[in-house]
Design goal:
Elements lengths: L1 H14 L1 H39 L3 E6 L10 H8 L4 E6 L1 E9 L2 E11 L1 H6 L4 E4 L4 H6 L3 E5 H7 L9 E4 L2 E9 L5 H6 L3 E5 H8 L6 E6 L5 H15 L7 E5 H44 L1 H9 L4 H38 L7 H27 L3 H5 L3
Parallel strand pairs: 4-9, 6-8
Antiparallel strand pairs: 1-10, 1-11, 2-10, 3-4, 3-7, 5-8, 6-9, 7-8
């Protein structure tokens, strides 16, 4: 009986191809939106999360806003931060944009990052060729630099950059290392062309004597609260207890907060996309009600020949589920394609979530059952005598 109902449902759908397609269009749009949005959000979130994880969840980030009298931290205050119990190292950061010249090749507005040896010690996979900046380079303000792979290709072409001179902001440096291209948010905004130099050299280029950004590396992240308080004690003394002059961020807490925010955003986007599924479900109900009206004679004749109401109800319910499933499958394919194209354009890793597939297809099937139930029940309850009068 069930097999025959399947065949009859399939034939009725095929008989009205255009109407069936227009009916499932809402389901297609809804499922495609859910798949694409969830996949894109999860892909971008994964990239951002991996970036923060690469920075280390045992890292405290200190950003200095300063006051009217003091703009940043001097060497003495940096030393006080380094001496805090539980802090195994600090990495000042000085950022600026400067032109880079090598031979006849010129690159404008290249990201120049002033770093010290601690940064490269904690980013052990960053250097792909040559060496990193060492303590002597920082102490003596040696004019050495590490350049990104993308910058090497642009200014040195097919030549090896190691040991070659490179003008940064009009000052000649020697290339001692090649670093892999950054995938940070800053790199996405400013490009992957990057030069790393000793942070004291970068301070000289900016004309400042104080550092406004510092990363502190903790030995044990479980003691983060105690170390944050110690850091604040040093900063309070440096900025005369003005709390708004600095911020101390635990990257692990920031990562947890970002995960919560992205989770809420994903839920909200799925809710919005589900509206299209609801509209598609209403379209299925409308088509099935029209189908019941058009096939009143058929239903009356089958009942007069002994067809049970449950069998008629099953046939119409199967038609509704078929329509929802077709829309779900087509929407799944469209959503995957859209998410893949967006991942290629933005540059994040494409990963198809099984949860998204199960949610979209399961939801579309549920829509087919819910919105197909009422027309199916209406068909099964038709009086055969009243139905045959329409012949």
């Amino acid at each position: 009986m069930f097999k025959e109902s399947l065949k009859m449902s399939w034939k009725n759908i095929i008989h009205n191809k255009m109407r069936s397609f227009l009916t499932v269009l809402g389901i297609v749009i809804g499922v495609a939106a859910i798949i694409a949005l969830i996949t894109i959000v999860q892909g971008v979130t994964s990239e951002v999360t991996s970036e923060f994880s690469a920075m280390g969840t045992n890292t405290l980030s200190v950003q200095i806003r300063g006051t009217a009298l003091k703009s940043g931290l001097n060497e003495k205050e940096l030393g006080q931060l380094k001496e805090i119990e539980g802090i195994q190292g600090i990495s000042p950061t000085v950022s600026l944009l400067a032109p880079v010249v090598q031979g006849g090749a010129i690159q404008e507005d290249v990201s120049v990052q002033g770093k010290n040896e601690e940064y490269f010690r904690h980013e052990s996979d960053l250097i792909v060729l040559g060496r990193a900046i060492n303590p002597l380079d920082v102490e003596n303000k040696n004019r050495v630099c590490v350049i990104s792979e993308s910058l090497q290709k642009k200014v040195f072409f097919a030549q090896s950059a190691l040991g070659q001179p490179l003008q940064i902001g009009g000052i000649t440096y020697t290339v001692v290392g090649i670093a892999e291209d950054s995938t940070s948010v800053e790199a996405m905004m400013n490009g992957t062309d990057c030069v790393y130099i000793p942070y004291r050299n970068a301070l000289s280029m900016t004309g400042n004597h104080n550092v406004t950004s510092v990363e502190l590396y903790m030995q044990d992240s479980s003691q983060a609260d105690t170390m944050i308080q110690s850091v604040k004690n040093v900063l309070n003394q440096a900025f005369n207890y003005k709390d708004d002059s600095y911020s101390v961020t635990n990257l692990e807490d920031l990562l947890s907060m970002m995960n919560e925010i992205t989770g809420m955003m994903t839920t909200m986007l799925v809710g919005i996309a589900s509206i299209a599924l609801l509209v598609g479900g209403i379209g299925i109900m409308n088509m099935m009600l029209v189908s019941v009206t058009e096939r009143t004679t058929e239903i009356g004749l089958r009942k007069a020949l002994g067809a049970e109401p449950k069998r008629i109800q099953l046939q119409f319910l199967l038609e509704s589920i078929f329509l929802a499933l077709f829309g779900g499958i087509i929407g799944l394919l469209v959503g995957v394609l859209v998410a893949f194209l967006v991942s290629l354009y933005i540059g994040f890793t494409f990963v198809l979530s099984l949860d998204a597939i199960l949610l979209a297809v399961g939801f579309s099937t549920l829509v087919g059952i819910i919105f197909g139930l009422a027309p199916a029940r209406k068909a099964s309850r038709l009086n055969p005598i009243d139905a045959l009068r329409s012949v």
